[in-house]
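Worked problem 6 (solution included).
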Amino acid sequence: YLYGPAEQPMLTPRGFCFDGAHVLISDTGQNRVLIYEGWPGAGYHDPKLVLGQPSLEASDRNARGRPSASSLHYPSGIWSDGQRLAVADAWNHRVLLWNQFPIHSQQPADVVLGQKAFTQMEVNGQGPGAPPSAETLYWPYGLTSDGEQLWIADTGNRRILHFVRWPENHGAPADGVLGQPDFQSRDYDP
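Solution. The predicted structure is:
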């Protein structure tokens, strides 16, 4: 059983990934990602790394500041193959990508999707009511990859975005969309 660190146990974990070498958990309610080396045993265990917060005791959204390459606000989906890492940072309306697996706590991400810069956090890049595009996100809660392609569950826009290759640039456009007829639609008509 995995309960998180004794000083600050997990609060509403929503994402989990085991890449064969690490257990990764999106501790959503505390705006952080916990990374354990190997499979921890029963009881409380401190993670090897924490992303999104300056310490295990901290839990504020965006580490009490504005969004940055090393902050999180309601991280949900998480994926890693042990070489790279992707985190759906839902309430910052973005996905953070690490091109190499993090080796220290609070390590900044390399690429941001859904926004043009790490310091932005607007719905669809402009704010509430803004239409979506191939470059924007609205509450991305889930994601997965096969190591080359990337799929993002863009919940607020009611769609799945598909990237044929692992994105290398901030705000890279998706190559395909599922659930909507085009990138500009977000309608729901039961």
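Discussion: The chain has no helices and twelve strands.
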